[in-house]
Design a protein that fits this description.
128 residues; alpha+beta; two-stranded antiparallel sheet; binds zinc ion
Length: 128
């Protein structure tokens, strides 16, 4: 099995990302419009960037990104249109490895009934 599947899938993913960005204009997590003109943070630079004339090389937190409803790590397909949505970069980061439903419930404060197997992490507090 030496087929360059990776590249083929990368192409497929890019096509899907294009399609999602063309078809959707609202963030799937917070339901507010996504400004598709945003790319980088003007004046925002990474540590290795020498700065100007670079206009900015840090991704804008509110730019649109395409995310999976059910994350790949949990069996969701990154190539299925039905499993992909437009989302703010910031919302995408907030969502992390949660499903869209879980993330939305967390955002709105609605308890997710199916997470009883996952106990919330208790942050360590000094006993002494
Ligand atoms: Zn959002
Ligand atoms: Zn820069």
């Amino acid at each position: 099995m030496t087929t360059p599947l990776h590249n083929a899938n990368g192409h497929r993913r890019r096509e899907l990302v294009k399609r999602v960005k063309a078809e959707e204009s609202t963030c799937a997590l917070c339901d507010t419009p996504v400004d598709k003109t945003l790319t980088m943070t003007p004046g925002g630079h990474g540590k290795k960037c020498p700065g100007p004339p670079c206009p900015g090389c840090q991704p804008h937190p509110l730019r649109g990104e395409v995310d999976e409803d059910i994350p790949r790590s949990r069996g969701g397909s990154p190539y299925e249109r039905a499993n992909t949505h437009l989302m703010h970069r910031l919302c995408n980061q907030r969502k992390g490895a949660m499903t869209l439903t879980e993330a939305r419930n967390k955002l709105t404060g609605t308890p997710t009934p199916t997470t009883s197997d996952k106990r919330p992490k208790v942050s360590a507090s000094p006993i002494w």
